[in-house]
TrEMBL record:
Domain Protein kinase: 50-312
Gene Ontology MF terms: ATP binding; MAP kinase kinase activity; protein serine/threonine kinase activity
Keyword Cell wall biogenesis/degradation on entry: no
Reaction equations catalysed: L-seryl-[protein] + ATP = O-phospho-L-seryl-[protein] + ADP + H(+); L-threonyl-[protein] + ATP = O-phospho-L-threonyl-[protein] + ADP + H(+); L-tyrosyl-[protein] + ATP = O-phospho-L-tyrosyl-[protein] + ADP + H(+)
Entry keywords, A to Z: ATP-binding, Kinase, Nucleotide-binding, Phosphoprotein, Serine/threonine-protein kinase, Transferase
Enzyme Commission numbers on file: 2.7.12.2
Entry protein name: mitogen-activated protein kinase kinase
Enzyme class of the recorded protein, top EC level: transferase
InterPro entries noted in UniProt: Kinase-like_dom_sf, Prot_kinase_dom, Protein_kinase_ATP_BS, Ser/Thr_kinase_AS
UniProt feature, compositional bias: Low complexity: 29-39
Biological process terms in GO annotation: response to other organism; response to stress
Length: 320
């Protein structure tokens, strides 16, 4: 479906730069942080080492390219935010680099091989390449997913969120297109351009960032929560809505084929009933989704609680 973003965010289509025009050598990643899904990185990666293969996508003011190392043939994803992007996109890129630095040891957060910011303001981030793309593209290409697949996805995303939340990092835009997957069925959280690093326990958290279709109800009315909202609970809502979409095959708060707009989304998310699951859904899956999609944020299960839920704790080989 076409995702509705808040009107202050721009989705710029950027021209394709030559890597040699943008990047100096990247610092060498540590051996312990090399991704299991990509070839080991060489000691350093210089601009001339990289060749652009094609554009992978656009988002949050940047363009992502598939690139290849000329000598090793190792493949990476290169995220470029140009200086012509708005200031919030450039700030988001710097924030993303910091988040990825803090979560370099998390197996369910996309791995960063290095970053650079030019004096002109261009920012580039070299990331591991996830060959199946994101869960949104998986849904479009393969159709709705089984409960066993969703349990595995939920378990991996929860592990990633647990690593983030334990470091006081809120993603704020959990949705299918920000969850990457590879041919090993490793699922990793990506795109931290609107994430928030919490410095204080009761720090205010801006609600109008991310994709409004996946915002939790309280984010549309932050005044009712003292001008802020519980971002950790907001991430849990995004996970529950994502799993429901992957199961149904369409965005749950709209009818199949319905074009989204701001008014219909606000009404559906804030005042509508939680979408019902078909009869074939198991009790465990129903319970898990309900724990994520409580309208009152205080009633939602935390990530730690969800990691103990029977839906994600059952034997992944059972095929249930």
């Amino acid at each position: 479906m076409a995702l509705v973003r808040h009107r202050r965010q721009l989705n710029l289509r950027l021209s394709l730069p030559e890597p040699s025009d943008l990047l100096p050598p990247f610092p060498a990643p540590s051996a312990s942080s090399s991704s299991s899904s990509a070839a080991p990185a060489p000691p350093t990666i210089s601009p001339s080492d990289l060749e652009t293969i094609h554009v992978l996508g656009h988002g949050n003011g940047g363009t992502i390219y598939k690139v290849r190392h000329r000598r090793t043939s190792a493949v990476y994803a290169l995220k470029v935010i140009r200086s012509s992007s708005d200031a919030s996109a450039r700030r988001g890129a710097r924030r993303e680099v910091e988040v990825l630095r803090r979560t370099a040891d998390s197996p369910n957060v996309v791995h960063c091989h290095g970053s650079f910011e030019e004096p002109c303001g261009d920012v580039a981030i070299l990331l591991e390449y996830m060959d199946l793309g994101n869960l949104g593209s998986v849904l479009r290409n393969y159709g709705p997913l089984s409960e066993s697949d969703l349990a595995d996805i939920a378990r991996q995303v929860l592990n990633g969120l647990d690593q983030l939340h334990s470091r006081k990092i809120i993603h704020r835009d959990i949705k299918p297109s920000n969850l990457l997957v590879n041919s090993k069925m490793e699922v990793k959280i990506a795109d931290f351009g609107v994430s928030k690093i919490m410095c204080r326990t009761l720090e205010a958290c801006d609600s109008y960032v991310g994709t409004c279709a996946y915002m939790s109800p309280e984010r549309f009315d932050p005044d009712s929560n003292g001008g802020s909202y519980n971002g950790y609970a907001g991430d849990v809502w995004g996970l529950g809505l994502t799993l429901l979409e992957l199961y149904l095959g369409y965005f749950p708060f709209l009818d199949p084929g319905q074009r989204p707009d701001w008014a219909s989304l606000v009404c559906a998310i804030c005042f509508g009933e939680i979408p019902s699951l078909p009869e074939r859904a198991s009790g465990e899956f129903r319970s898990f989704v309900e724990c994520c999609l409580q309208k009152e944020s205080g009633k939602r299960w935390t990530v730690s609680q969800l990691l103990t839920h029977p839906f994600v704790c059952k034997d992944p080989t059972s095929g249930a």
